[in-house]
Amino acid sequence: MDTTSTRKNTEEGMIMAETLRRLRSWLGLVVAAVLLPVAGVSAAAADPGATIVGGTRASTAQYPWVVYLATTSGYQYCGGTLVAPNKVLTAAHCTEDDVASSVLVVAGRDDKNSSAGTAARVTRIWIHPSFSSVTRGYDVSVLTLDRNLTQATLPVATAADANLYTAGTSTTILGWGTTRAGGQPSRYLLRASVPVTGDQTCSAGYGSQYKPQHMVCAGLPQGGVDTCQGDSGGPLVAGGKLIGVTSFGEGCASARYPGVYARVSSYETEIRQQLAS
Ligand code: ARG
């Protein structure tokens, strides 16, 4: 199980998981190289390559509320969503070790190597009090910014939006994370579309680690399109609302293992309270 963020690979178990994952993907490549020509499938079709995994370039002009979290030295490590002019919803596992003064929220910057947009400071970090690890749920965190940003905000899904969580609902995922498991982070904002996955499908892959009350999955049965390391905390969007926060997955874009997202509507009360504070 890869439940790490890009900067939190220090625990032994995580290193083991990372090593196993690398080994597995290396074996996967070898197997694919041998089998694909025989099957008549081009390597290009099997590995959509450049781009989240299986995505395309996107602009913050079109998705003004997508932001990224960076260290004060500018290293991007997670995503987030502007849900009020001075509030960002992100993942608890992104901020659990952070000190507010050392986090930057960057808005309006498609290209990490540019200085477009705004880098705001964080004055307060709220982490769901029940959060302990991603597979237990509660992977939500709200950051308070030192200023009001001018970018448009995205409404947060509530209990009234149950329909948006139906299997098959089309969603948008966004981020600056890696373009394959174990790969390099993207320089540019990427986006992709994936359908919401039914509870049974998600449980079939993740067993008891998938908790339907706290999480929602999205991805294709055959894999190929997914969020990946560094996309955590970023948005899963459906029907013009934020329905999920990128949380964890087994590798990235693997068949039978869709991406797992914090189910935003289950935290309606806590989030609303944070937005009002
Ligand atoms: N935990 C990762 C992060 O911190 C996100 C992983 C998402 N994985 C996936 N297969 N959808 O950036």
Automatic annotation (TrEMBL):
SMART domains in UniProt: Tryp_SPc (SM00020)
Key words of the record: Disulfide bond, Hydrolase, Protease, Secreted, Serine protease
UniProt subcellular location: Secreted
Coiled-coil segments on the chain, per record: none
InterPro entries: Peptidase_S1 (IPR050430), Peptidase_S1_PA (IPR009003), Peptidase_S1_PA_chymotrypsin (IPR043504), Peptidase_S1A (IPR001314), Trypsin_dom (IPR001254), TRYPSIN_HIS (IPR018114), TRYPSIN_SER (IPR033116)
UniProt cross-references to Pfam families, sorted A to Z: Trypsin (PF00089)
Principal location listed in the UniProt entry: secreted
One Gene Ontology biological process: proteolysis
GO cellular component, one term: extracellular region
Protein name according to UniProt: Secreted trypsin-like serine protease
GO terms, molecular function: serine-type endopeptidase activity
Family to which the UniProt record says this protein belongs: Belongs to the peptidase S1 family.
PANTHER family with a match to the protein in the record: FI18310P1-RELATED, POLYSERASE-RELATED
Domain Peptidase S1: residue ranges: 52-276
